[in-house]
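REQUEST FORM: STRUCTURE PREDICTION
Request ID: SP-0412
Submitted by: Lab K.M.
Chain count: 1
Length (residues): 178
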Amino acid sequence: MYSEAPSNGHRLNIYSKYDELCLNNDTNRKLWKYINKEDFQNSLRFEASFDNPEIIRKYFNINQKEDIMLTTILNKAGNILYNYCCNMISNLKIPKKTAELLEQDISPNELAKRLGMREIIHTCGYNRSNIKCFLKSKLKGKKNPSYYMKEYDDELNSMKFEKFGGVIKRKNNRRIKK
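STATUS: Completed
RESULT:
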């Protein structure tokens, strides 16, 4: 998931269709009557989220004067998902110096000194979960990543405030914009 946006406006899920079909649930048991799940052993499923009109208009090339209709979307030619992926990846390019430092076996504190906490946050797509996973990979079980997260949370909120004009916090799994 690309999470630089304040919402999940750009989301791409990629997973094994075979693993999904192997789940023993009512829906899959009904499907097994009509399909052979083994045919999907080497299949990946891509799901893109086009969850606002601006994104739909952009990727499906629908002008502002046109209504967004399902028939219009289904009849569009071209590789919409490919363009969507290319756009997401182009926003995630990591500078060579940053990539080299990230590969080195150094502690998160040393990395933050050399690279800067903001660059690490940017590289992780402004996503708290990605930051925590990144820290965990750097710590290799020596310390709990939660030890570092308070500093990163503070810096992340500061960056979001600068960029979007408010801090987004979660309370009871609901978004609250301050």
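NOTES: The first strand starts at residue 11 and ends at 16.
Reviewed by: T.R.
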